[in-house]
Amino acid sequence: MNAQQALAPTGKLRAGMNIGNTLFTRQNEAGELFGVSVDLMQELAKSLDVPLELLVYQQPGQVADDALNDKWDVAILAIEKTRAKTIIFSPGMTEIEAGYVVQQNSSFELADQVDSIGIKIAAPEKAGYERYLMTTLKNASIVHTQNFAGSLELFNQNQVDAVAGLKPNLIESMHLLPTGKLLQGNFMTVNHGFSVPLGRVEAAAYLEKFVKQLIEKSFVDSSIKKHQIIGLTAIKPLHNP
Hints:
Oligomer: single chain
Number of helices: 8
Radius of gyration: 18 Å
């Protein structure tokens, strides 16, 4: 099986696009998608010499849930071990810090202080960082929301003590959280990579090489700079001495 057959068995590359993460994917008023993920998918389709179809999903969990339903061939998702039951990930291409916003009158100053007894943290269900918190929190509890906007709403209604999120999104949303403060540090660093449904071993092997090529020629870094995405960092190439 060649790469084209492995990644685009229908003759076109069906890309699952999560518009819930605006660091990677944005949508203009005409409904057209643009951003780092679009650049990456276009480059992948070009390397395979196949047409590209962009399939819109509102949240990352919806993309992950469709992994074994033959709806998409490739997606860009946070690399998270609980998703490995249905998804094969490429090496990471980017990294983003995830952190917290708390009330200004909170005694917390650092992200690692939030995991305390009685603390309620709002996080979108099935987001990569929410999956991580579900397995690592020892004292605090998670209040699940449908999306990041829902987390902000609960915080402003004083129904939770903290909002978890990717730090660039938190920084961008501070004007919507008039009583909030961003804590120093992070609770994790999120890596994103290409994803293919479990079982597509040949596709995963191609993507591993493809990602290395993208990193070596600084394609991801150039795309991030082109779209002026603050807080999203490309994995740097490894230069042998």
